[in-house]
Amino acid sequence: MRSILAILIGLTLACGKKNDGGNGTGTASGSAVGSATAEVGSGPATCPAGNVVQNGACVAVITPEKVAVVTQQQTRLDELAKLLDQVETLGVPIELLNGVVQLEEWKKFAARSAEFQALDKVIVVLADAVKQLRQFKGGLAESAARLGNLKGELERLMTETGTAKRIEEVRTQVSAQVRTAVDPLATQVLDAIQKGLAPLIAKLEETSDLVLGACAFAKLKGSDQVKTMCGAAKESFAKGLAFLADFKTKPAQLFDDVTKQLTTQLDTLIDDQTKALIGSAQVKVNEALKLPAAGVGSGSAGSAAGSGM
Q1: Spatial CB neighbours of 307, under 8 Å, sequence gap ≥ 6
Q2: How far apart are CA 132 and CA 139, in angstroms?
Q3: 161 by DSSP, 3-state: which?
C-alpha cells in the first residue's frame, strides 16, 4: 500500500514540473513575438542623423544640399534688398518735381493747364509708390531672416541624434517654417507690385514727358531758377525710369524662383496644404503682373509746350 502511494506522489510531482516548464516556454515565446511585432509596426528606435522613419525604415531626407538650397534663397532676398538701395533714384525726380510746382512762376503757368493742375495729386501717388518700395526693402530683410529660421531648423534636424522621428512629425515642423517664411513674402511682393510698381509704371514716364515738355519751353521764357530745376529734372527722370525698367519684374521673378526651389528641393518635407497655399499665392502674384502700360507722353509734352509758360 505504501509502495503504491509513493508511486502516485512521484507521478504527480513529475507532471507538475512538466507543466511549469511548458508555461515558461509559452511565456517567453509570446514575449518574443510581441516584441518583434512592435519593432515592425513602429520602425527603428533610432536612425542616423538627418534620417527619419518612413515606411518602417530609416530614410535620409535632410542633407547638406537641402540646407544649401535654403541658404541660396536667403541670399537672393538679401541681394534684391541691396538692389533697392537704388530706390532713391525714383525718389529724386519726385522730390524735385515737388519743388518745381511750389514755384510761383510754375503756379501761374499751371493755372492755364488742367494737366499741370493735376500734378499735385500725381506727385502724392508717386511718392506713396516709392515709399511702398522702401517698405518692400525692409520686408525682404524680414523674410530673409525667416528663411534663416528654416535653415536653422533643418540644420538641427540634420545633426540631431537620439530617438528616431517619423516623417510625418518632421514634415509638420518643416511645413510650419516654410509657411512662416513664404506667406509674408507673398504679401510683400503683391504690395510691391500693386502699390509700388503699378503706379510708377503708369505715371512716372507720363509725368516725365509732361514736365520735360514744359521745361523745353521754359528755356525760352522761364527764370534761371526754373531752368536750373528743369535741367536737374531731365537727368533725374532718366535715371529713375532706367531703374524702374530694370527692377519692375524682379519681385515676381524672385517669388517664383524661391518658392519653386523650396517646394522642389524640400518636396518630401512639405505637406500638401502648404504646397497648395504656395500655389495659390503664385497665382495672385501672376495676376498682379498684369500691370497697366506706362503712359505715352508725347501728346502730353506737345500740349505742355503749346500751352506756353
Answers
A1: 109, 112, 113, 116, 214, 217
A2: 10
A3: coil
DSSP 164: P
Q: Where are the beta strands (DSSP E) in 43-192?
A: 51-54, 57-60
Instruction: Give the percent of the chain with pLDDT over 90.
Output: 58
Instruction: Cell numbers for 78, please give them.
Output: 538679401
pTM: 0.77
Q: Which residue has the cell 540644420?
A: 155
Report d(CA 80, CA 68) in Å as an integer.
Answer: 19
195, 128 in Cβ contact below 8 A?
A: yes
Per-residue model confidence as pLDDT tens digits over 23-51 = 444 443 333 333 333 344 567 889 999 99
Residue 54, beta-bridge partner list: 57
Amino acid in position 28: A
Q: Is the pLDDT of residue 12 over 60?
A: no
Distance CA 199, CA 188 (A): 16
- How far is the C-alpha of 103 from the C-alpha of 124, rounded, in Å? 17
Give the three cell numbers for residue 96: 524735385
| C-alpha cell read off for 31 | 514575449
- Which residues are CB-contacts of 45 (< 8 A; sequence separation ≥ 6)? 163, 164
